[in-house]
Amino acid sequence: MVKEDVGITVSKKGDFSEWYTQVVLKAKLADYAPVKGLIVLRPDGYSIWESLRSTFDKKFSRNGIRNGFLPILIPESLLGKEQKHFAGFNPEVFWVTHSGTNVVGDRLALRPTSETLAYTLYSKWIQSWRDLPLKINFWNTALRAEIKATKPFLRTSEFLWQEGHTVHSTKEEAEKEVMKILDIYKDTVEEELAIPVTTGKKSEKEKFVGAVYTTTMESIMPDGKALQMGTSHFLGQNFSIPFEVKFADKNNVEHFAWQTSWGVSWRLIGAMIMVHGDDTGLVLPPKVAPIQVVIVPIYRNDEGEGIVLPKVEEIKKELESKDLRVHVDEREGLSPGYKFNDWEMKGVPLRIEIGPKDIEKNSIVVAKRYNLEKINLSFTEIEKIPTILDEIQVEMLKKAKEEAKKNTLEMSNYSDFKSKIERGGFFNSPWCGKLECEEKIKEETGAEIRVIPFDSENNNKKCIYCQQQSESIPIFARGY
């Protein structure tokens, strides 16, 4: 195998789309499945997802949320019980019409989302106030017909995600849950993936179908497009009434419950690739990296067994004792240079190089992936490596925030808006709150309201489109 077989052949700035696809495939995060629109997660890709799942599970558990499982098939009759919700998803639904050679009576949908199925069951499980709040999270796959313009992790016909569904006795309690979950999402994405997000509400036009309102977190990608990173919805009683999710209060008076739903998907992995990757390949934040430290022994012939490898094993054990994920590259027939390039493309946060001369000096060479800096550490300084990884995590978020800031513009003149939207970015622009202006802006520029940041209400500016009194300052952007 030669370097050209595995190296990234285009630049991030030159051909962003092709660069992204090459990183996904050549860093071995995922591959295409035989069916169009589907991908296969490889071990490194799945490991990142497992890391996120573990973090979310711990935070959900502290919030009284437990995990459950739902089947993938949903009868059409259930999907139709909430008409607006069903109409919104119907164009994307895969249908099962046959069981073997027999036609099924009620068509079965391959789950696009689980509200209708979950709430049919919730109506059976909830009888009185003692059963509330009910908080369940489901780690599922979802299927939505995405055949055109598919992109690994970002837009596929099947994707991994979590979807939470909670039931409460009061409106106030449900709305607090919506915000708790959004805060969990924001903290996790920024702390684990080192990606800055902006939180707020969706407009009425862009909210989740069937929700009273949708809160969201949005990020700007290096190509200037926005990416929705997660959503948390206040459903009110829009589902509890048609699905009869009711409870008897302490006075035995029956009430319809108040509900929320929320979710993030493996789209987060796609965002991580885009935000941090470079022309060499993947750059992984240490907290989610499947391998945090790779050790590359450098030796000839018998130098390995007698000198280098025993020291490598000693260093590996010391690092593993500090709960670090460590791998030793002992592949034969490959040069150190090839191995360095390979691990850089795979994004491993730290690489340790050690050979006989390093051992003579009682030191190792440590290469940082995120900025390609090399430093020398003495054997007694190896204990600093966990701190170095923590510093890398902080620096990656800092750098991503700086890049996001560069891609965020204050824009109040519509002519300027139209001329600059081609280059992409987050545009903070005043809006009157009218659907007509929102639709016209999207029709004429391709930009939509991605998020109305919390506390963005404004009464001193004019709508960027109609010049009437503004209601808020949303972020407009073209998105994935």
Structural account:
One of its GO terms (cellular component) is cytoplasm. The chain folds into three domains: 3-276, Bira Bifunctional Protein, Domain 2 (BirA Bifunctional Protein, domain 2, 2-Layer Sandwich); 293-389, Rossmann fold (3-Layer(aba) Sandwich), CATH 3.40.50; 408-477, 2-Layer Sandwich (Translation Initiation Factor IF3). 34% of the residues lie in helices and 26% in strands. It has 14 helices and 23 strands. The chain has helices at 3-6, 16-26, 43-62, 76-79, 83-89, 115-125, 171-192, 267-276, 303-320, 336-346, 356-360, 385-406, 414-420, 435-445, and strands spanning 30-32, 39-41, 66-68, 73-75, 94-99, 102-110, 134-143, 158-168, 198-201, 213-220, 226-236, 246-248, 254-256, 258-265, 293-297, 326-328, 350-354, 363-368, 374-378, 408-410, 426-428, 448-453, 475-477. The strands form five sheets. An eleven-stranded mixed β-sheet has the order 3-7-8-14-11-10-9-22-23-21-20, sandwiched between helices. It has a five-stranded mixed β-sheet with strand order 16-15-17-18-19, sandwiched between helices. The longest helix is centred in the middle third of the chain and has 22 residues, at 171-192. The protein is globular and about 80 Å long. The model has no long low-confidence stretch (mean pLDDT 94).
What's the quick description here?
Helix content is 34%, strand content 26%.
